[in-house]
Specification:
This protein is mostly beta strands. It has 1 helix and 4 strands; from the N terminus they run H-E-E-E-E.
Length: 109
């Protein structure tokens, strides 16, 4: 009787077992900071957190449209997002989302 109940349940969960599992997490951080230095060639900005005094070097991407106006000593509100994503697959599977991934123990392509 138990076998008759478990067999259909197994076939219901089998498709779910064949897909890779994905986990993603991110956090957005806001901080008031003072600009310690600006490098216009590399677009690197050194910021000092106003609360903690810690320094952080960031790269100002193309979305920072007023980059040329940023000067040492300016006070800014920095908003940045830290994130991580991970995929898990069964042994021998290669993740199609990451072309450089490979099978454990093999050289990367």
């Amino acid at each position: 009787m138990l076998t008759k109940l478990l067999a259909p349940a197994f076939f219901l969960i089998l498709p779910a077992l064949s897909f890779a599992q994905t986990a993603e997490r991110s956090v957005t951080i806001e901080a008031d900071a003072t600009v310690k230095s600006v490098d216009p060639d590399t677009r690197l900005i050194v910021l000092q957190n106003s609360e903690t005094g810690e320094e952080e070097t960031i790269v100002a991407g193309p979305e920072v449209v007023n980059f040329h106006q940023i000067e040492e000593g300016d006070t800014v509100k920095a908003v940045y997002t830290l994130g991580v994503a991970a995929n898990m697959a069964f042994p021998g599977e290669v993740d199609s989302m990451c072309p450089s991934s490979g099978i454990l123990g093999q050289m990367a392509a």
